Amino acid sequence: MSGTPRTQVVINYMLLIVFSAIAVYPLVGVVLASLYPPETQPSGFALPSSFHFGNYASAWTSGNFSMYFRSSVIVSVVVVVVSTALSILGGFALGTMRFRGSKLLFYVFLLGMIIPFEAIVVPLYYDLRALRMTNTYWALILPEISGSVAFGVFWMRAFFLSAPRSLIEAASIDGASSWNVLWRVLVPFGRPAILTLVVLTFSGSWSEFFLPLVMTTDPKYMTAPAALSVFSGQHTTNVPLLSAGAVIVVLPVVIVYVFTQREFIRGMLSGALKG
Amino acid sequence: MEQGLLPPLAGRLGGKAPRSDRRPGEPRGIGLIYLAPAFVLYAAFTLVPLVHAFDLSFFQWDGITKGTFVGLENYRSFFTDPVIRSSYLHTLVLIVFFSFLPISIGLFLAALLSRIRIRGLTFFRTVLFLPVIITNVVVAIAWAWIYAPDGPLNSILSAIGLGEFTRAWLGDFRWALPSVGLVGTWGEFGFCMILFIAGVMKIPASLYEAARVDGAGPVREFFAVTLPGLRNELTVILVLTVIDALSTFDLIYVMTSGGPGTATSVPAFQVYSRAFLTNQVGSAAAIGITLMLIVFAVSFGITRVMERGEE
Amino acid sequence: MVARMVRGWFAVLTVVTAAALAASCSVTPGSSRGPASAPAAPATVGVTETGPVTLTVWDQESGQVSKVWDQLNAEFQQKYPNVTIKRVRRSLGDLKTSLKLAISGPNPPDVVEANQGWPDMGQMVKAGLLLPLDNYAKAYGWSTRVSANVNAVSSFTPDGKQFGTGSLFGFTDKGELIGVFYNKTKLEKLGLAVPTTFAEFEQALAIAKQSGEVPIAFGNLDRFGGIHEFAAVQDRIAPVSYLTDFIFGRQGANLSFDTAQNLQAAGILQDWARKGYFTAGFNGVGYDNTLAKFVKGEGVFMITGNWIVADLGQNSTDFGFILMPPMQAGDPPVTTGGPGFPLAITAATKHPDAAAAYIDWMTNSHSDELLLPTGQIPLAKGADTSSVSPDTLLGQVRTAADATNRANGLVPYEDWATPTMYDTMSAAVQELMGMQITPQQFVDKNQKDYAAFQKSRP
Fold first, then answer.
1. Less Cβ crowding at N or C end of chain A, within 10 Å?
2. ipTM score here?
């Protein structure tokens, strides 16, 4: 035991503050940089003499980020809605019912969680190209749903497994069908777990980079992160403009996270250790 | 940074058998119907491409004209092509930065912070978890700016009198890879901290008291009580971070494009580069499959080792 | 009943999946496409279609040149109101990555800037993705507008097997060349005259370094710049005929990169890097950044191409241009250069005649006039150069280009030599200049790439 409790408390808080500062600095730095006059070099520590919000307007209009943003919204919303629904259905089945092949199917889905994207991106590209589906939103939506559903089914199954049996019993005694049990009873009960899944799926889909990079060369269908990387190659000397674009791209994820962080982190911590 | 957050494989992997039976009147296979939509999409866009990847890996193909069958040639290159070999060696370095460093930091801080109640823990948790959730491309752009020859890192070094250490970090043959690795450490340490702090709080105080009665100091306490108590969390974090390190693509593509030379090339980047830049599609598919097998092996290895230690 | 149905579905699903897997396991990927057949000679030149025509054009122009392109596009659409030009701008790196995939996939562009050489144009010709332009060349006079070796560089045999001869697959009348830009003020300040021999140039570098200046402004983060630095030195040591034959692959495996001259050139380049003649930390500095700094006065010399004239100002009196000085004063002019990006027509286009008219528009004398101030050198025979005074920066570039062209001293870009040479050489130059490999190892790496390609050619 070193030092008095008071010193220890002070040291602990200082450590927390230092690490927190390290955690946010890059993001704060980028936001600061986006407010500098265009084509200048932000120092990274000082505020600019005047705030140039015009960088955001430039990025949004002439930088075309409004178009990329729209694509990202379309893709991510569809992916989140469909993937969550399918995961709930699948997780419900694997978590509350016994049927032939359920164990095998569970392992098949488990496999999907550890297959790295690099293993399938190449054939996926050439297959979709043969189907003339590259450069469409479907080329992004369908593989993303496929990838997130493997984890989603696993996650919802774990949740349903831990649901109190009494809840389900009570509903069945009332003669409810499995469909009603699921949507009327279990889903309301499972809001935290579902919320966590939604946030994870959304952030994964919004931030997805490799897939759009490969599948979409037409700027009309590119989602924000891939477009940002192309943009960064074309604007190496205009750091403030690039930073404004970066902030636009990351804002939705940060907002969703901040608004749900309490429940989300709690859900992550408990879910991470369940079987 | 945990896009596509991967499986918490700790504990009861096999899963318990579901407890309730089907409701009366419903067909026996109702579960299959519920599962079908998810399975169809999953099979069509993950499993089928995977099989197709195996197929492609046995050919030499430029993506456009007809390919030629070459058997295991693409896999043999794992042993003969120095670029592929070095790309895997680079992931070993990244594992140190993505896994060992953040875990050590997390453990150290969790041990230190466990003894007192922390006011505003929610605030700190929110902030510390931020790097995990931020889009990779944005992280890469932010850090590329930090590492720039006239960026903040060099400014700090000059300001505190370490001016001779300034350099073009991402263009330096020796420092480019560790620089990218450090970004990974930054991205993962918050997650580790939060998970470990939460885990430590679950360890019953009685265990600590028992250790103290035995005369253990804080270091002994750590190894005898804290560490074993964090076994589940450790397994989860280890698997997640190691897989992250093995499949890194976004950071490399945006920050260094595998350079300078091939100093920061990693398998995922080789897959991209060969499939779409140099028209070696079969080789790209083979590297992807090999990477997957390594990920499998590592995941199972880690969980097996951690489970065995439980006895 | 439902149970039986469901079990049936499950069984069917399994069978179908297994069948699909089995089927996909035995398929050879890809399809053989023969070389594209040449479109017939047009009866009249210009756009003859009357219905709406959309031409999608991919290019990598930026800065001033890009603005002129916008103007030329607008004028073309005015001339032919039924034609809409859809322009897609990319960076050079992106163009190299996405172009081949884009034109072989669904919805390809109609007209593209196709990089000459084995890696890009060669692959596209072999896969039958570009149209042979010989008939258009005759109709529009492209074959007589420029000298034969300008068109040779954009030519391949239709089966894609030989480079530098055969059918024409792309046309341009603008040229590029690599040389040494210098900051006049700095030279004066250092008491140096403009170097006329290689030895004088090296001396100038040493003196600049001693005085604390950056001798050569250079940033190689983007990788392509290094190849130009190496070529600039190599061109003064290795004979032109060897270089041209090597790059065109004219003597197959009889030529090797492993020569005493290439070794010497590599040694000199590495020596300069070791002596700190280049921008500090150049492997981590971007090209655009370096250029911006050179314009603002950082760096005595910059070894790059004529495309930066627009940024320096065509009438600039602060900067000058020379070719890399020869070993002996009075040696004939030699440098890397030649035609710039040619415009090519993709095989999948639905409007080949309109595309050809567009190409002619972008390469006629009107376009030459508009693009001249940006530093783009017209290679058209009898191009009007009277508007440019030889004392200005642009004038110096023009004079050097004309002299080299007349002496047949233009060496093509070395990264055109094999399909993978760009990757191999750019990485190898980074390693050479970063002291990671010896000159012999540098030479070996490039030779390995070259030999493998020559062996694979039937």
1. N
2. 0.88
